[in-house]
Design goal:
The chain contains ten helices and ten strands. It is an alpha/beta fold. The protein has a six-stranded mixed sheet with strand order 6-7-8-3-9-10, with helices on both faces. The chain has a four-stranded antiparallel sheet with strand order 2-1-4-5, covered by helices on one side. Mean pLDDT is 86; it is low at 1-9.
Length: 282
């Protein structure tokens, strides 16, 4: 990373600035006019049902997906013009990723460190310390082909944070983690935010979003339909939980009906079985 290449920005300039973001795949509109600004030091929960456009938003923010309409700035750089500069400054933790099974965590993290311009000694020192917090230091030189999903996810978390990025984008980062490790990650996020880091957090786990995030954005059908702190969102829903608020906003109350219809299917089969049994009785 070249400090001279950094654009000067004031402390109050948003780390993420999105205006009129639109993205379509063939005839399907995935993002339909997203306007969004995120300040330094915020933990933003970005939630929505499957197909709402969360992953598409994330891929655009981290410079992985181009060919969109609108203006997107991340860490002071235009994503469309400078995707490489954006990637250098962002830490990304995906839900799943193709790790190189033939590599050890040490080798993989050295590879990540070199991409971000880190020295070998600094990378190893950070990698061993961070893996140690996840009880993986003794696996530093083990091939990842034998790693469980949870172990792989821990390596991905370290890879996303090892270069000390200003913006951390996480997509279901707790997937596969045991309860203790999940608590550690949540504490890490809070600590990073206190140090001025910004976390853009995508998840379906509502109780985690409710507890960890100081701002929650709800996306549905490519549009932002709610944006505020949990307390602000809750005030408009008479003290409802985030899960209840989410389902009411994104399903228009259909979730209860769907559940009842699902149960009715079993009742119908039970009734049919009872009739068949009665007809077969001597």
């Amino acid at each position: 990373m070249n400090p001279a290449a950094d654009q000067k920005r004031s402390a109050d300039e948003p780390i993420i600035a999105v205006k009129g973001l639109e993205k379509s795949f063939k005839l399907t509109t995935v993002l339909d006019g997203i306007d969004l600004e995120v300040a330094h030091g915020q933990i933003v929960g970005y939630i929505g049902p499957n197909g709402a456009g969360k992953t598409t938003t994330v891929k655009i923010l981290i410079g992985m997906l181009g060919d969109f309409n609108g203006a997107v700035s991340v860490c002071g750089f235009d994503v469309a013009r400078d995707p490489i500069e954006v990637k250098r400054r962002v830490g990304y933790v995906p839900e799943t990723a193709a790790l190189y099974d033939a590599l050890t965590p040490g080798e993989f993290l050295q590879f990540v460190g070199r991409i971000h311009g880190m020295g070998s000694e600094e990378t190893e020192r950070r990698a061993r310390a961070m893996l140690g917090l996840f009880d993986l230091e003794d696996k530093f030189d083990h091939r990842m082909s034998s790693f469980s999903k949870g172990m792989r996810q821990k390596v991905l978390i370290v890879a996303g944070l090892i270069h000390n990025p200003d913006l951390i984008v996480m997509d279901e980062p707790l997937t596969g983690l045991d309860a203790n490790s999940a608590v550690v990650v949540k504490e890490i996020l809070s600590g990073l935010a206190q140090r001025g880091k910004t976390i853009f957090y995508c998840s379906h786990v509502m109780d985690v979003v409710e507890r960890v995030c100081d701002r929650i954005i709800i996306l549905n059908q490519g549009k932002i339909i709610a944006d505020g702190s949990f307390e602000e969102l809750q005030a408009g829903a008479r003290g409802a939980s985030l899960e209840h608020l989410f389902t009411e906003l994104t399903s228009e109350g259909r979730h209860g009906t769907t559940a009842r219809r699902f149960i009715d299917i079993f009742d119908a089969f039970d009734d049919a079985d009872n009739v068949d049994s009665a007809e077969r009785a001597p």
